[in-house]
Structure formats: structure tokens, C-alpha cells
Design a protein that fits this description.
By secondary structure, the protein is mainly alpha-helical. Helix content is 56%, strand content 0%. The structure holds zinc ion (2 copies).
Length: 286
């Protein structure tokens, strides 16, 4: 049994705690009015979370932290070969490298047609709130686990760094999806450092050129650095159309439709291209 030296249940507490916190803030400071049944959406999104937990429990029972600890004992990967076992440096390097890996994984999910088929489920939510954070098709979960395992072993990521990232990521990701009225000045300063609700909202626009922007998970710097940052949707933050061009009916939000989405995506659509506007502003009233 590997001794981790820290409590691996703390990231779980951060995950469920941030869900509860932002669910509560959404009740107090809601932004856009729900246009679709939240019961149906939440049913699908929590069902996807259940599948994700099941897949992770079967494939990597102890999580990637245990894999990282094992790789460390074997001296596998970049950071482990640099003899940075102690101190803050490997922890900081891991948090940054892991976030960078997540950025590029996300870009490839948009760029490669077969990956987009899985990731489209996240974008097909027709209202965005804290539960959209949970909305990932099992195919995407599998892909993400494989990418994660490869990154942990080849980069020799620090278990403590993964632990810190696993606390940071759910808080920032849930905040960046939460349907909350956000102070513009706070957002302006915060988005110098991390992905914010208003910046990630652009990523959920139905206009493909806007969908293909703001990919970062925790630190927004990757979008600045690689030229994928977009400040706001063309239609304005309170009026833009959420979702994708296809899958726009209330039936598309049900569990059965969500699970079969990768097989029903229109074939002739390019993986990444400017899209025509799908609806006029009047339908997207908030
Ligand atoms: Zn995306
Ligand atoms: Zn999102």
C-alpha cells in the first residue's frame, strides 16, 4: 500500500462542496432565466456524473494520485528524473503542467471529429449552470483518463501537485459554469489569473468560432498564450445563444438522447469552423 502523506478524500470534499456552494449562490444571484426544464437537465447531468464515478472507480480505483505515487517510487517521468522530490517546485510544476495538459486535451476534443462527437455532449446543454460542470459523455471520461494516465507517467507528476490541482480544478470549473450574476470588476481582475464564469460563457456560445475559444480549465493564461482567448460573445453576455447548432430541442436534453449524441451528430459538419447564427436574439432572451 502506497503512503500518500495526505488525505485523498479532501479533493472529493472540494468537489461536492463547490457544487453545493454554487448551487446555493445560483438561487441567491441567478443570471439567465432557465429556458428548459432544470429537472430534465439535472437528471441527465447527474446521471453522467454517476457513470463517470463508476468508470473511474473501475479503471483507476485509487485515482491518478496513486498512479503518480507509484511512478514516483519507480522514478518514471520528467519531473521524477529531475530529482525534485521535495519542496514546492515539483508541486507548482505539476499544477501548471497538468492544467496545460488539460488545455490541449480540450483543444483536441474540439479539433478531432471523433473526439468532438463525445465532447459535444458538454456543449449541448441548453442552459448552463453548476450541473453543466458534470456533463461529460462516458467516451470523453475514458479518453480523459487515458490522457491523464499517460501525462502522469511521462511527466512524472507529483502526487501532492495532483492533490492540489484536484482541489483547485472543481472549484474553478464549477464557478465558471455557475449561472450567477457576476460583478464585472471582480471578473475583470479575476480573469487575469483564472477562468471565470463570464469568460467560460463564451465557450458555451452556439456560434462555433466562439465555442472554439477559452479552453483553459484553471489558469486562463493558456488561452492568452496560444491565441484562443475571446473576451465576450458577439451577441452580448445576456443574449447570446447557448448550445450547439444541432441538438436544440427539449428532447435533446433527456438521458437517452444525451447518451446517443455521439452517434447522431450530423456527418457533414467540419470539426471546427465558423458557424452561421442559429437563432435570432429574440429567442435567447434571458
Ligand atoms: Zn469544450
Ligand atoms: Zn463548459
Amino acid at each position: 500500500m502506497l503512503e500518500l502523506g495526505f488525505d485523498p478524500t479532501i479533493p472529493e470534499a472540494a468537489f461536492y462542496g463547490s457544487l453545493a456552494l454554487f448551487a446555493l449562490i445560483e438561487r441567491i444571484l441567478p443570471r439567465r432565466k432557465d429556458r428548459y426544464s432544470f429537472m430534465v437537465r439535472w437528471g441527465s447531468n447527474f446521471f453522467l456524473l454517476t457513470l463517470e464515478l463508476l468508470i473511474a472507480w473501475v479503471l483507476v480505483p485509487g485515482g491518478l494520485i496513486v498512479l503518480a505515487a507509484y511512478a514516483q517510487t519507480q522514478g518514471w517521468g520528467l519531473l521524477n528524473s529531475l530529482s525534485l522530490e521535495s519542496g514546492l517546485l515539483p508541486v507548482i510544476a505539476t499544477v501548471l503542467l497538468w492544467d496545460l495538459v488539460k488545455y490541449w486535451e480540450h483543444r483536441l476534443l474540439h479539433r478531432i471529429p471523433w473526439f468532438w462527437r463525445a465532447h459535444v455532449v458538454h456543449h449541448a446543454d441548453l442552459d448552463v449552470d453548476f450541473t453543466t460542470t458534470l456533463r461529460h459523455h462516458p467516451f470523453e471520461v475514458l479518453l480523459s483518463l487515458v490522457v491523464g494516465a499517460i501525462a502522469v507517467v511521462t511527466l512524472g507528476l507529483s502526487p501532492l501537485g495532483i492533490f492540489v490541482f484536484s482541489i483547485l480544478a472543481p472549484v474553478v470549473a464549477t464557478m465558471s459554469h455557475a449561472n450567477i450574476r457576476w460583478n464585472k470588476t471582480v471578473d475583470k481582475w479575476l480573469r487575469l489569473l483564472i477562468m471565470t464564469r463570464d469568460a467560460h460563457a463564451v465557450h458555451h456560445s452556439a456560434l462555433r468560432k466562439e465555442t472554439d475559444s477559452n479552453y483553459s480549465v484553471v489558469f486562463i493564461w493558456w488561452d492568452y498564450l496560444f491565441g484562443t482567448y475571446r473576451a465576450a460573445p458577439e451577441q452580448g453576455l445576456d443574449r447570446f445563444d447557448v448550445g450547439v447548432e444541432y441538438f436544440r430541442t427539449p428532447q435533446d436534453l433527456t438521458v437517452a438522447r444525451v447518451l446517443t449524441m455521439p452517434f447522431r451528430i450530423p456527418k457533414d459538419l467540419p470539426s471546427s469552423s465558423p458557424a452561421t447564427a442559429t437563432e435570432d436574439g429574440s429567442e435567447s432572451a434571458t
